[in-house]
Structure formats: C-alpha cells, structure tokens
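dude i think i finally got it to work??
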Amino acid sequence: MGTSIGGILEPVKTTFNALSGKTVAVDAYNTLYQFLAIIRQPDGTPLTDSSGRATSHLSGLIYRTANLMEKGIKLVFVFDGKPSDLKAGVIRNRSERREEARRRWEEAEVPEEALKYAKASTRIDATIVEEAKQLLTYMGIPHVQALSEGEAQAAYMVIEGDAEFVCSQDYDSLLFGAPVVIRNLSAQRKNTKLEVIDLNEFEKKRGISREELVDLAILVGTDFNEGIRGVGAKTALKLIKKYHSIEELIAKSKIEVDAGIEDYELVRDIFLHPEVTESYELKWVAPDDAKVKELLCEEHGFAEERVSKALERISMLKVKQGSIEQWL
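look at this
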C-alpha cells in the first residue's frame, strides 16, 4: 500500500519510446499483486489451471513482460526480503482486510461487487513468488532478492547506476531515495498513461529535501507507522515546510507525539538508511523456450501456440533501437 503522498506529487506523462533501451528495476511484489488482482474473470475468479492453482501472475509475466521487452525496455525484478518488525501491524491488518474482502466476495450477488471484493482479497504466497522467479529465470530476465524492502533495493540499484528507473505503483521508493520512479508500466488498461516522478524536480518545486519528505510521509502514515489521524499529504507538507522536521514540529507546535508517530526515528532510519545488498548480478540472456513451455504449457495448461509467439517476440526483440545482442 505504501504512503499516501500522491496528492502533493505531480507526475509527468511519458511514452514507451522514451523508455526504449532503459533498464527498469521493477517492484516485483507490487507488480505480481497487479497481475493477480486485474487478470481475472468477470465474476472475480482468478485464472487457474485444471488443478485450481492460480496462474494470473504467470500470465501477466509472460505476456505483459514480452510486450515491454519488445518495446526495448530492459527489466529486472526485485523481490521483497524479510520485513521490518515495525511492519507487523500493517501485515496483520492487510491480512484481516483480505479475509473480509474474500467473505464479501463469496456473498456478493452483483458481478461488479464480486469483482471489487475479489481484487481486494488478492494475496501472494510463497508458491506464487517461487513460480514467478522460476519463470523469469527461464525467460532470461534477471531478478534480485532484497534483504528487506524490495523498493529500497530497487532504489539503491538506480542510485548505483545499474538501472535508470524504479517501477512501482507505490511512492515508498521515493522515500528510499529513488531518483526517478515510473508508474503504470504494467497497467492492463489501454487508457492508463505512463507517469514519471523525478525526486530532484519534486524537491526543487516543493522546496523540501528528501529527509523532509520522509518526515512528511511519517506524519501521513507509512507501512511502518500509522501517522497522525486527520493529517493528509497537503497538511503534512505545510507543517514540514514550516517546521522542517518532526522534532521541531513537536517542540514548537501543539501537535503531540501519539501512537501514530511515536517510532518516527526508527521509521525515518528505515527510509534513510535501508538494508540493501550489493551482491547481485544483472545479466539478460536468451529465453529457454523448452523450460518456459514445460512450466506454462505442461504444468499449468497454457496454450502452447500463444506462449510460443510470446517467446518468439522476446527472442527476436524487433525494436527500433537494436536486437537481442544489446541485452546479452
């Protein structure tokens, strides 16, 4: 879910042509949630194989990724590691909300209601993660296992120059220091526009630093704290521009430290000094067609003809700016 600071951000529209030849570090969990939530039947039922196992995530990875690679975009997927202890409450609340959504989905009589609750009930388990990593490996696409937050690792990779964008629907990667974030890259709707958020441009326009942005987000609420009730992004921006830090805000205003921000120093440290790994290798190789078909067609019943066409597109990489040699 991330932090709700979208109201003060001003994304700039971009195009796939502008991204051609660029390396994008993808928030894998965020993207898998998108696939699992969106790729469903009209009644909300996810795509499954003959054994009832979910396949929406695999469908999104093979077909949507093929589309992006064909446009010349180099993808690397970054998977979450062990979450911070401060995230335990958020994880528990999310689990409870999903269970409630599942119950309402089962009881819904109107298709639109069923679809809404079905999407809200989406969850990712260990099997889905392992299958996603397996398919990416067979497709020749690198993936990185983060020590903790995937968005922090993706931001680090961009800062280090190993990628040029972080791809995520959430805004946490900005708090982790990602210079440029792209949204809607994996969106399924044709009318959804690609958006880019430049952290440096945002800081200049709003007159705040990244450190102040982190404090702003803490006031609003993050995955690691609830925030102050009734304080949204615009109000938090005014407070931070006036007081510059949570310490000064507490010392010079009437706002008191409550449960929503009591751990603000720990939360701040998570964003400003995230746990990341330097041990990763980014290497793009030609897909192993046989392995991909074995996983998708033989094990999960995908149509071989359609999978073959996707693999052909990946292998050929018929883009304006080069061929597969530029990837290897």
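The longest strand covers residues 74-79.
im so relieved honestly
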